[in-house]
Every structure is written in C-alpha cells, then in structure tokens.
Write a structure and sequence with these properties.
single chain, alpha/beta, 3-stranded parallel beta sheet, globular, disordered N terminus
Length: 70
C-alpha cells in the first residue's frame, strides 16, 4: 500500500478520530475524497509532515496557512 483513502459522511467526532488514526500510519500518500474542506485546520495539524491529496467539491470553509504538503 502507498496510500490511505477515506470516503465517509460520519459525524465530525468520528471523522476526527479516524483522521488521528490515519495520521499515525506510515503511508507515502494520503488521499481523501469528499472529505477535507471542513477539516482543513485539523488535517493541516495532524498530517504536518505527510503528503496528502484532498478531492472535495465543497469550498474551503476556512483558509489557514497550508503546509506545502497539502
């Protein structure tokens, strides 16, 4: 495996727990589909030194300073 994919509509808390779990994994890339625009700050923090790709049709709710890996 070289990536981990998440496609979920679970509650925010469940999503946050899953993101924390995934961030502890050692994958080369993380790909998120239909998830991310509402969790950018958390993902930015959890995946700080990891390469991630976010595919989402929603606008980004908040526009934090992105890590160059996002």
């Amino acid at each position: 495996k070289n990536f981990s994919a998440v496609n979920t509509n679970k509650e925010k808390k469940d999503i946050e727990e899953k993101l924390q779990e995934l961030a502890s994994e050692d994958f080369e890339y993380y790909i998120f589909t239909d998830l991310g625009s509402g969790h950018i700050s958390l993902m930015n923090k959890l995946f700080k030194d990891k390469k991630i790709i976010i595919l989402d049709h929603h606008e980004i709710e908040e526009k934090p300073q992105f890590n160059e890996n996002i």
